[in-house]
Give the backbone structure.
Amino acid sequence: MSLNDNEKSTFKLHLIYMIIEGVVLGVLALNEFVFIKSLGGSNYQMGLLFQFSMMVFLFLIVANEMLKRIENRKKLLRITALLTRLPLLLIFFFPHAPENIAINPVYHHLYLMLFLIYFAGNIVIYPSINFLLKINYTHVNFGKLYSYATSVNKLLMLVVTFVYGYLLDLNQWAFAYVIPVIGILAVISVFILSLIKGPDVILLPRQSIFISVKKSAQEMTQIMKT
C-alpha cells in the first residue's frame, strides 16, 4: 500500500489516538458494572447511564451543521476535550465506602451527570474525526487505514476491559483511581487528534442552519427509504 507523506503523518496521529481511546473505551465498557456493584445504583439509573452514549447522537444532525460553521475546529476539539473529559477527575473524591454513598445518593446523580457530559463531547469529536480523515486520506486508502486503526483499538479495548474487570474483582473501589486517569488520557487523545492537518481554506455554508438541518434530515430519510 503506497502512502503519501500526508497520509503517513495522519495515520500515525490517528493510530496513537485510537490506541489511547482503546484504553479509555476498555475501562468505560464496565461503566454499568461499576455503577451497580460499587456505587449501588438502581436499575433505572443504570438504564439511563447505558442510554447516554446513544441519546446524545439524537442531536448529531444539528451538531454537524453547527460544526460546518466553525473555522477553527482544532481549537474547538481541545476546548471540548477539557470541558467534557476533565470533569471525570471528580470521581477521585468519591467516598470509598458503600454506607457513605447509600446515605448520600447525590453521588449517583453526580456520576450520571459526569458521564452525560462526557458522552455529549462525542457529538463534536466523532464528526471531527471523520472530517479530518476524509481530507487527509485518499479514497483508495481510507478504508484500509481506518480498518487498521480500528482493529488495534478494538483489540486493546478487549485486553483493557479484561484487566480492569480483574482489578475491580480485587478492589471494587479501583474505579475511583482508574477513571480519573482515563479522563486525563481522553484529553490527551483528543489533543493528539487535533494535531492532524486541517484544510487550508474552510468554505462556510451560506444557508441558515435551520435550512441545512432540514436538508440533511431529508437526505437521511431518503437514504433510509432506499
Observations:
- The chain has one domain: 5-225.
- The domain at 5-225 is CATH 1.20.1250.20 (Growth Hormone; Chain: A;).
- DSSP finds eleven helices and no strands in the chain.
- The chain has a mean pLDDT of 86.
